[in-house]
Please model this.
Amino acid sequence: MTWRPAFWLAAAGVVLLDQATKQWALSALEPYEQHPLLGDLLSIQLVFNSGAAFSLGSEFTWVLTVVALLVTAGIVFYGRRAQRSWAAVVFGIGLGGAVGNLIDRLFRDPSFGQGHVVDMINYGNQFVGNVADIAIVGAAAALVIAGIFSLPVLDGGPAEGDDAPAESGDEVTAAENGAGERG
Model:
């Protein structure tokens, strides 16, 4: 498909931006020191997250790394099947976010596969995130909205039990392919 490069370019762009902002934070900020941007609503604060969102699972960092690898593989699988250029870009943004945080899990201290994610955007002292988190949440929200409005996201692929390739006119919406469902 002609927009597959958009998938990979969007992913690469997010990874580069994410890693650049993390390097900036590491070199310019003191850990845990808060720098207000919008009063109490938004600040910059360097923290290291061993867990998932809201530091959940911080004792099981290696499990989160395995889950991140599986999610990354899933995004690549589905992203390459994007039916529209906007969908390819959305999946690419999600992939970039997943890879950005996966890089931290694999290569940052304390050890390979158990690295702590560098976060620096403090949202009203509720949680601290990074560019990768924004990309992941934004891509997920876009896919949910696509599902709500039944916008075509993925190609149909072969029907169940059918080995024939999908017709070019076959469309599968986000709602039909489960993008809006979470288990």
About this structure: Residues 11-153 form one domain. The chain has one domain: 11-153. The chain has four helices and six strands. The two ends are 30 Å apart (CA to CA).
